[in-house]
User: Fold this.
Amino acid sequence: MEFPIQKLGIIVLAVLVLIAVILLVTTGISGQSGALNETSQSVISNLTESVENVR
Assistant:
């Protein structure tokens, strides 16, 4: 059973977006939006870059 890489990339991207939203919401609620927000944003950008490299 072969799984198309493009579909996998879309699923991975969707999961990453979900994680990003959760991270941003939790950091916003906790009130420590400074460093955590920057960290999560850099992690998100790194992940999206790696996903783009896979495709």
User: Anything to note?
Assistant: The first helix runs from residue 5 to 30.
